[in-house]
Amino acid sequence: MKTKFTFLFVVLSLVLAACAAPSTPAAEPTAMPEPTAMPEPTATPEPTEEPASRTIVDIAVEDGRFTTLVAAVQAAGLAETLSGEGPFTVFAPTDDAFAALPDGTLDRLLLPENKQQLTDILLYHVVPGKVMASEVAGLDGKMADTALEGKQIAIKMDMGSVYLNENTQVIITDIEASNGVIHVIDSVLLPPSGDAAMEKMDIVDTAVADGRFTTLVAAVQAAELVDTLKGEGPFTVFAPTDDAFADLPEGTLDSLLLPENKQQLTDILLYHVVPGQVMAADVVGLTSATTVLGKDATVKVEDGKVFLNDNVEIIITDIETSNGVIHVIDTVLLPPQ
Q1: What is the crossing angle of helices 262-270 and 214-222, to 10°?
Q2: Which of 13, 168, 258, 288 has CA atoms 20 to 30 A from the CA of 327?
Q3: Has residue 237 been placed in a domain?
Q4: Considering only CA atoms, which of 130, 116, 125 is closest in space to residue 85?
Q5: What's 245's domain CATH number?
Q6: For the purposes of burial, counting CB atoms within 10 Å of the CB of 242, is it exposed (0-12), middle (13-18) or buried (19 or more)?
Q7: In sequence order, what are the beta bridge partners of 127?
Q8: For residue 24, is it within any domain?
Q9: What pLDDT, in 10s, does the model give residues 271-306?
Q10: Pairing of strands 152-158, 161-164
Q11: Do the domain assignments include residue 234?
Q12: How many domains does the chain have?
């Protein structure tokens, strides 16, 4: 009986299956899609000539942040050099960095008669060899030779950032090119003492040519100290930048430049001058320095930095001139009462 029941069950199952089958011809089995031929693996591009084949000049042109630098490189006739084999390390100022130069400086540099000075400034932004950021950081407290013969840049680390010549910050690093590397900086580097091929200029001419001391030069002229500081000397001048003068309380500078305040202005300027040529190596060994005004300025060294009167920092040193030396300071010195 059990066998008969089993047989009937199997027959019934077959009938039901036949009824359930669609009357339409059986659909072709949805063939498993042909494995869509995987696109040939985008072969790790045979170093397509993308980044690797672009030179420093190509990258600067394409980037868009360096239009002024590119124009300057072309005006100086250095495009071919910087497209050459290298390798080079270029500290590249942005368009904003060039725009921050004193009014008229860039226009003057781009004149054909100033081509040599422009060339020297640009070469001062180039270091031979390919120096990556990790290596730059390892040069903390050291000097690096530039492509401008005999001129070096000072490198320091501060709070994880890299600075050149104390106050120019490296803001983007390691833009690699086929012939070197670009590091982006936020201000234009100026060689310590002008044209390497020319005889040294005196203190006044050096300050005029530099571009960072327009207010100091105007003050020296108003106080009628030009002839004195062009004299034989030697003198050591602690020179406040334009930014240092701009930090004085509002109206102070305008007041000092009035004819009736000429003596006060003269005293302040003479307080920035020390007789003799005192180089940075000598300054750090001092505790005070007697100025031409006859009043002392105190000197202290702290964490490798030199300060006058406790809070005036010397930010660039040893700009040598024909009649002495200039050290750049970040604040105007005011004589003690």
Answers
A1: 120
A2: 258
A3: yes
A4: 130
A5: 2.30.180.10
A6: middle
A7: 89
A8: no
A9: 999 999 999 989 988 999 999 999 999 999 998 899
A10: antiparallel
A11: yes
A12: 2
